[in-house]
Design a protein that fits this description.
There is one protein chain. Helix content is about 50%, strand content about 20%. The longest helix has about 40 residues, at about 1-40. Strands 1, 2, 3, 4, 5, 6 and 9 form a seven-stranded mixed β-sheet that branches. By secondary structure, the chain is α/β, with parallel strands linked by helices. The protein contains eight helices and nine strands. The radius of gyration is 23 Å and the shape is elongated.
Length: about 250
Amino acid sequence: MGKQKGKKQERKKQDGANQESRKELLEKEQEQIDNLIKEYGQVILDDNEKEARIFLLSIIGEIEGHDCLPASTKSTKYEHVLPKLAAIEDDKNVDGVLLLLNTVGGDVESGLAIAEMVASLSKPTLSLVLGGSHSIGVPLAVATDFSMIVPTGTMVIHPVRMNGTVIGAQQTYDYFQQMQDRIIGFISGHSRIKKARIEELMMNTGMLTKDLGSILVGEDAVREGLIDSIGGISQAFDKLYEMIAESKKKSNN
């Protein structure tokens, strides 16, 4: 009798220790998730009834290039995003990617590099433009398999700009044109808008008082064929779940 009582007490102690260990593990996992959100705007979403594992990646503020921006500037660092996209492609447990965009644009080369990486992912991808996706943010918004924008979201399309010293030579203008052609080609290749229309919107002089370009708000971006649909976070999840289910169905067949 005494032995059985002793065994029960021992089991209770062991169960208590196991529960404490699980609690510590969950707390550490939550801490890691919180740090990812805080530092990089990234998180894995897998607590859903669809049993889909979605990687959420946010592109916010200014897209940083080879030079570091001031600490006071909200930025997305391409050296953080590119390795993460490679890891997503290599991770068999990730079913899809949700890209949240609220960016003023930034470095052209870095923005295009991220856009090309997103476009080449084999997993279903969906972008959602929130406050805005301006300048080089436009290729990022259309790089996914499906794109959405909230009704008040904005897209600003304008010619290529460059900071710093610019040499006033024909070669410089040729380089600008070449870079602009790359951007136009990418946008038209990943959306329903034509190259000629993109250039027309870029060179518009009647909308921005001190600049060239166009602002497309919500439905305007969809009407132009730049973005696929109007929607918010709920519609974005519904569409991405649908795309993931279709992708899994194809894989099983």
